[in-house]
Design a protein that fits this description.
single chain, Beta-Lactamase, Rossmann fold, seven-stranded mixed beta sheet
Length: 437
């Protein structure tokens, strides 16, 4: 009876290790101890520990890097689990991993991210730095969430800024680039970037800071959190539990002799009030808002509690943006669309003469998706004197939008259709990202 119990225990241990009973078993306790000792250093995927969970994590992160995924989702289910990669804003599932490796995989990630592996009842945040290949080290922000069937993990890749970061790389057309460049090089004023979560607002702000970053300026930024480190910029992360909020950091910045202030997001009346007053007192303030388009940002700030006369004096420019996926140039193909469908999408008769948009097809180069990378579409609205008068008069969003249209400010939908026209994206992608005006 004792021999039978010993064989059963040995078989169970072998299955948990992903090995056959006849193979020698690795010392799991030694592996965990090594992981804990090395957690203070940059983790290396070429770990001498060949445990199946370690190898699976290696393969998963390398696949995410190869496919340029922005997020990794590790999702438990009742009878297994799945891993999905967010590529160009869309989730794609990879081959389902072995069910028995789920807990070991999640524990491995939590150890590397310096999270409490014994705590599974509340969400946790962590961060890990790991070498995905020789000479390439990547940072990940990790969040755990307790669900019905176990902990769900999301790993956000924290890429460094692109080497070619510029207004052109953001997707701005020549006229928009000229207007934005003039606004961010002004000595003072408030410049806002609007759009939903995941529309590239933070990258746009980083681009502005990158252009303004020189030894003659004092640049300060407050974010929640500061994910990408920028040399030459004084970056602060919000810590609300300690009392360090956006508004508190902003007030501290004003005593730091700043030239340019970047606020990650205007969320409340206190932050909005300090930001607007800072823009009125000789500072250039860059920030973001969650609105559908540029004219709606004015109404949002007034609703938050900013006085219209202060806003009219401080606001210099508002931009709105979305991200659309780029068609794979290796496999894109013309898509036959009727003239009625193109007119309904917003194209004029001038654009319909012997022209058809491209559509996604899918090939080996784009992993069968049909798209590779994303590009921004923008609405750039400089604040004119006529617009300031409407702001002081508490004009509604529709009135501001009509005035912007008369001042030749293109809508987000117009910008997206321009990308369809030049073959950068598909009509379906443009319509999904923007609303028909």
């Amino acid at each position: 009876m004792q021999d039978s119990l010993q064989r059963t225990a040995s078989l169970r241990a072998a299955v948990l290790d992903g090995e056959s009973p006849a193979q020698p078993r690795h010392n799991a306790f030694a592996a965990n101890a090594n992981a804990s000792v090395n957690s203070n250093q940059s983790a290396n995927l070429a770990d001498s520990d060949n445990a199946p969970a370690v190898r699976l994590l290696t393969d998963t992160l390398q696949e995410a890097t190869r496919r340029n995924a922005s997020d990794l989702h590790i999702e438990p289910a009742e009878h297994g689990w799945r891993v999905r990669l967010r590529i160009d804003g869309v989730l794609h599932e990879i081959p389902q991993p072995p069910a028995h490796l789920r807990d070991a995989f999640i524990t491995r990630v939590k150890v590397l991210a310096r999270m409490d592996i014994a705590e599974r009842r509340v969400p946790q945040d962590g961060r890990l730095r790991i070498a995905t290949s020789p000479g390439r080290v990547e940072d990940y922000r990790v969040n755990s969430l307790p669900t019905l069937f176990g902990e769900k993990l999301v790993l956000r890749r924290l890429d460094a800024l692109p080497t070619d970061l510029s207004l052109d790389s953001l997707g701005l057309d020549p006229q928009q680039r000229e207007a934005v460049d003039a606004a961010i090089r002004a000595p003072h004023g408030l410049v806002l970037v609007t759009g939903p979560t995941g529309s590239g607002k933070t990258l746009s702000l980083y681009c502005f800071l990158h252009m303004l970053n020189d030894e003659a300026r004092n640049l300060c930024s407050v974010e929640d959190p500061a994910e990408i480190q920028l040399a030459g910029i004084n970056q602060v992360s919000v810590r609300e539990k300690a009392g360090l909020t956006f508004a508190v950091a902003l007030r501290a910045f004003l005593r730091q002799d700043p030239d340019v202030i970047m606020v990650g997001e205007i969320r409340d009346d206190e932050t909005a009030d300090v930001a607007v007053k800072a823009a009125q007192t000789g500072h250039l303030v860059l920030s973001t808002l969650h609105t559908n388009d540029a004219p709606a940002a004015v109404a949002r700030l007034i609703d938050i509690g900013v006085e219209p006369y202060n806003l009219a004096a401080a606001l210099r420019m508002v931009t709105a943006q979305r991200l659309v996926r780029r068609l794979c140039v290796a496999c894109r193909a013309p898509a036959q669309q009727s003239a009625a469908a193109l007119r309904a999408a917003g194209f004029t008769d001038d654009h319909l003469d012997s022209w058809q948009p491209f559509a996604a097809t899918g090939c080996e180069a784009c992993h069968g998706i049909g798209y590779r990378g994303r590009v921004g579409v923008h609405q750039v609205m400089p604040v004119s004197d006529a617009m300031r008068e409407l702001i002081v008069a508490r004009a509604g969003t529709h009135e501001l939008a009509r005035l912007a249209q008369t001042e030749q400010v293109a809508t987000l939908h117009d910008a997206a259709l321009a990308r369809v026209r030049d073959g950068t994206t598909s009509l379906a992608e443009a319509l999904a990202a923007t609303e028909v005006a």
